[in-house]
Amino acid sequence: MLVISGTLIWIPLFIYIIWQFVTTHGKKFGIYAVILASLSVGMSDLVSSRIFKPTVQRQRPSYDENLKDGLHYAKDNNGNDYRGGEFGFYSSHASNFAALTFFVLLALPRHYRLNTILIFATLLTSLSRIYLGVHFPTDILMGWFMGGMFGYVFYRLFAFIKR
Predict the structure, then answer these.
(1) What does the alpha-carbon distance between residue 7 and residue 20 come to, in Å, rounded to a whole number?
(2) What's the rounded Cα separation, in Å, for the pair 52 and 36?
(3) DSSP alpha helices (H): ranges in the chain?
(4) What is the pTM of this model?
(5) 75-134 pLDDT, tens per residue?
(6) How many CB atoms neighbour CB 159 within 10 A?
(7) What is the Cα–Cα distance from 92 to 110, expressed in whole angstroms?
(8) Is 136 exposed, middle or buried (CB count within 10 Å of its CB: 0-12, 13-18, 19+)?
(9) 3-state secondary structure 71-118
């Protein structure tokens, strides 16, 4: 689950998405799609990490006094228990994947295999965050909601530019 929460495993999928944007929308608009999809993920991450987590300050399950001793921790690359940062509301992983997925679902509606893979990747990554003990289910739900909003807003901007 730690690997699934990482970035490296998803690089082939991200490359495929870029290729689909360019082949579907042409070089010019494909590049716009890549930029706007990246901005949707970037804004999603910025808002969750820099605004919500420090403002809400809800501890992750791995830091909660009532829960932390009952959790099983995965070991990170240094052999330490992976616990994430202290605060976890809302999940950046869930939000970022939801932003990308929502943007792609709208920008590439006929690419059923890609859309199915992205939905699966969003669910799998989100579940990995709960499994690792770094998020509550409500962190994931809020992440999906916020990411969906960012994906939709940036898709609308893409649709406007394309017109």
Answers:
(1) 20
(2) 22
(3) 2-5, 11-46, 53-56, 92-107, 112-131, 137-162
(4) 0.92
(5) 888 888 888 899 999 999 999 999 999 999 999 999 999 999 999 999 999 999 999 999
(6) 12
(7) 27
(8) buried
(9) CCCCECCCCCECCCCCECCCCHHHHHHHHHHHHHHHHCCCCHHHHHHH
